[in-house]
Structures are given as structure tokens and as C-alpha cells.
Amino acid sequence: MRLGLGAEWLGLLLLLGVSAGARGAAAAAANPQAEELLKAINAEYKFNRTSWDSSILNDAPSNLKLERILWTAQPRRFEFTVFTQLTLNRLPTLFNMCSSYTGPLSAAVYLALVQPDAQGGGALSSSNEAKVAEAVLQAESFFHRVESNGSICQLDLMLFSEVFDSDQAKLLYPVNYLRNYARMQVRTRLLAMIDVDMFMSTSLSQEMSQPASIQRYEELCAERRATVLPAFEPTKPGAVGKDMAMRISRVSKSELQTIHGRNKVTIQFKLRVFPRGHTPTDYLRWFATSEPYQVTYKRFYEPWFITCNEIMPWYDIEFRGYGMNKIVLIAALNYYNYTFWIHPSAWLVHNPHTDTDVRKMVARQASDVNKFKVKLQPNALYRKLTLLFGKAKRGMMRGTYDPKVDPRQLAVYDKVAWLRAPPQLVGSPTPESVFV
User: Fold this and answer.
1) pLDDT digits (tens, 9 = 90+) for 135-167
2) Is the whole-model pTM more than 0.85?
3) CB atoms < 10 A from the CB of 114, how many?
4) pLDDT band at 117 (very low <50, low <70, confident <90, very high)
5) 132, 211, 281, 348: which has the fewest Cβ within 10 Å?
6) How far does CA 167 lie from the centroid of its chain?
7) DSSP 406-432
């Protein structure tokens, strides 16, 4: 069977210098615990197509299959893991992220397949089987390249697939499912979810390479602290912006201050389009201090943060596609009595990219509602997101909030004895004024 790698991917693999022998070496480097985890995750899998209306109107779950799991054999440089999620075509973005960070990184990679009801009967079609085989090849090739580079991250990688019945349904990207599964394979107590389109400052790896720093952060977990990493973005888009983003991640904090400003190289992340998401971090104070400082949670705050596995809430899997998925998690931190402290010397930088189709859809529907008072159809994604956010908000105000988690994932903990126990958290009712 001939697998048709696209021109972009062929270029990447040639650039990375991956040979057929290297791919074989990657495939041979199986980890018994990783394989045990794969079998446990797939134990309850049954072939089923995800559909738009069933998901939006009836809350039918996503149906993920773990196709491949690859764990680094390298010793961890330090006891702190970044976890993330991405679609298969964004592996080059993962490589960029990995190049900005020298510690453990757990990634859940995703392949969406479309198979109308008339094709394949009750099983995967031959054409989709070929796509899965090609995706496994790409994932193994990518993993081996990272594994053979001693100067970048130590990568653990999961490759998931999901079958949809239409191109529209394929827009329901299961972002929080993937975050939760990437978090499941984290093998350190200290962790941070950081989206794949972010560079990490050099100072973060330098700090985490000091055992005393790890110990200090682990001690802070007893206080339920979220250590927030301020986020920036380049002021230019496209290829120029990508080069700027890499530069911003490598400078010192004092140098960063000299290039920060609307008419300079970098600004606060989303300052132009969604300032509420990060303004509570207080960037002016950040540049003026060398010590951590506490800030107050505000509605729609959505920073990235460092914490410990046993006190980190699950990401709510009901949020799919685009929108509100991280905002609700940060609101849950507040509900679970976290405090927010800003890291004084490490930061993140957004690696600019074009908007996804689902993000464009949600933005268009939000504009229709908020600007033109359009009444959306019951199966509109933006309408669903607002309903889910309202449900979560009411749960937090009543003290009954409990994020929805994939039952198949929770069942894995009964099958795999060495997994870290899932979090058992109790929250406190959130005043309604917090959400105004």
C-alpha cells in the first residue's frame, strides 16, 4: 500500500533527516508501561462515528482511539512536565515548542477522519485505514527526530484518531479530552498545560533544572497556588512574527522590557482582541518586580500556570471545537480555592498562525448574536458554548460544579495500578459578583 505523504511533510522529514531505519528504531523503542496504558485506554473502544447534531443537541461523547503511544527513553532533565495537544498537521509547531524547552513534554496528537454512513459499514474504511497508517508513520518519524536530539525536550507522544460522519462534525475538535489524556501520561508531580502554539522562555528551563526550584513549587501546592506564566505575542503576523516570537522567548527580562509596547516587538497576549483574558496578570507590575505577587481572579481570565498533578482539576470535556475551554478551567481553579501568583522571571510567547475554520465559525456566530441580535439555531456551536458556560457558572455559584471527564479515561485508573491517582477536589461556592 502506497502512503501519500504531502509535499510539506516530505520537506519536513527531509529537513529532519529521518530515514526508514530511524523510523524502525523508533517503532522498536516500545515502553511496557506505555503499551499497558494504550491497551487500557482502548479497552472500551467501539467503532462509532461522531456526528454534529448528536454532539451538540444530545451531548454524545467524542470517541477517541489511541493509535500509537511513544515514550522517551531519555532520562528526565528535571521533574516538571509540560503537556499539550495538537492536530497531526501541527507537528512542526510542536517541534518549535519542544525546541524552546529542555524538559519532559507530554503531547496528545489528533487525527480526524471523515467517513459517511454509507462507507465502511460498522468498521473503518480501507481509505481511512491508510490515513491512520500514514499518521502513525509521521508520528514515529517525528518522535525519533526529537528523541535523537539531546538539546530539546524529552517527548512522550500519544496519537489519537476519531471518526466523524461529516466534514462539519470534524470541526468538533476534542480539545479538553486531549488535554486530559496528555495529562494522564505525565510522569512528574509538577506540571503545566501549555498550548502548542506557545514558546517558553529560556529562563523557565533554566529555573526548573535546579532541584531547589522543583522542591519550592511542590511545597507551594499545599497552598493550592497557581503560578501564572505571563504571555506575550509579537506585534507582527506571519513569518516575520514567528521569527520575532522565537527571539522574544530567548531574551532576558530586561531586554524584553525594552522591546515591549504597541509600536515595538511584543505586547501582552491578545491585548488587541481579548484583553480580559490576561490583563489581570498586571504586566506593568510584572516588569517592575523581581518577586512573585498575587492577583485576583476575574471573569474570563485564562492564563497558563504551573501546579501539581494531585490538585489540578480536569478539563471539562463538554467544551469542544473552539471557545471557553480554558476559561472554564481557570474559573474552576478559583472555585477550588486556588490563589493566583505571577511568576516573576519566566514567560510564554505566542507563535502566530492562521485561524482555524472552527474558530472563524464561532467568531462569526458570536458577532451575529452580540452585534446583530441574531437568534442562532439550536445546533449552533456558539449557542452550545454559552449554554455550557452558564451551566458551569451556576454549578460554581451553587457549590456543585464537577467537570465532566471521559468515563473511558476514568476507567483506566482501575486498570493501571502505577498511574497517579486522579484529583479529588472540593470547591467553595463562587459569589455571583465574580462572574459579572
Assistant:
1) 999 999 999 999 999 999 999 999 999 999 999
2) yes
3) 17
4) confident
5) 211
6) 23
7) -HHHHHHHHH-TTSPPPP-----PPPG
